[in-house]
């Protein structure tokens, strides 16, 4: 490994805005130590960071606005070494006059440019669901979903529904699962949950299995997974990155067994496209801060992927996007990220809460971050 680092001239690090500044500092200090260049950032290796600070920032568990901003790269020790280059054309959108107007609107969403600098944005009527129901959102995004046997892999690559919270995502996934091939058998996979008996917290304690099954931890599978063959799933764990089995990889479920899921990889490196893989049931280790007891769940590290959270979608480009905003966004850049996923402004539909007036939605932007990294890009400040 050291020999490889000594020959390395450039490191490309994408989606850096979502990284905690301490992770970047740790990489910097490790390279300085390994390459024996204590005064050279990253040991003298040029690092190209990529990302958009209008998108989501590092996740700080139950963190305040100040804590999230403090965790951002722009507040780190290395930021003063960074030379910023601006990319001003949205290459993800289709190249039409309508998409150019949509791109300009997206920039205003990301920078929260609005009369009076309000914290709300008006959603255009053209992208709102006609009758503002979950059924219409599903129908507009997943047309002809009932005949899943005749649907190709590209169908699922071109479609997704986004929501702000995991609970809403789970309900949408269940609703779509009921619609596809109603006569097909469902496969119910229950987790084998236990607690770490070596931990002092749980000594001489008895926990009902129903209680253990009810616990949910961020980034872990549900204790009760329900599948149908042919449905899309998303990997939640880095199983084998060398084969494309990384967190957020999308797969098609081909067969279900007690100990493994037979799947087909449909995203990631083209070398592994269409490759059949086996996903094992594994012991997962949740963060110690996310649960009141040291839970030891054993489950398949996947979830249904008809709908995913806005944060999980960052970095993806999808042709047809449904956006569930019945639960408002709650963090910096979430609305911008959700609207930016669609490659065409004409292929996005938004579901609003029933009590929303004049199609106005909350838009959270931490301008303290943008003022640092976009100080030379005057479009963001009016």
The N- and C-terminal alpha carbons lie at a distance of: 49 Å
Low-confidence stretches are none
Strand order of the largest sheet: 11-10-9-8-15
What's the alpha carbon Rg, rounded to whole Å? 22 Å
Main attributes?
382 residues, 4-stranded parallel β-sheet, globular, alpha/beta
Can you characterise this structure?
It is globular and about 65 Å long. The protein has a domain at 2-81. The longest helix is centred in the N-terminal third of the chain and has 15 residues, at 97-111. Helix 4 (97-111) runs antiparallel to helix 10 (334-340). The chain has eleven helices and 19 strands. With 382 residues, it is α/β, with parallel strands linked by helices. The strands form seven sheets. The protein has a five-stranded antiparallel sheet with strand order 11-10-9-8-15. It has a four-stranded parallel sheet with strand order 16-4-17-18.
List the helices and strands and how they pair.
Layout: H1 2-7, E1 10-13, H2 21-34, E2 46-49, H3 65-71, H4 97-111, E3 120-122, H5 134-141, H6 153-157, E4 159-163, H7 166-179, E5 187-190, E6 194-195, H8 209-214, E7 224-227, E8 232-235, E9 250-256, E10 260-265, E11 276-280, E12 282-283, E13 295-296, E14 298-299, E15 302-304, E16 307-309, H9 310-313, E17 320-325, H10 334-340, E18 348-352, E19 360-362, H11 367-373
Parallel strand pairs: 1-2, 4-16, 4-17, 17-18
Antiparallel strand pairs: 3-19, 5-7, 6-13, 8-9, 8-15, 9-10, 10-11, 12-14
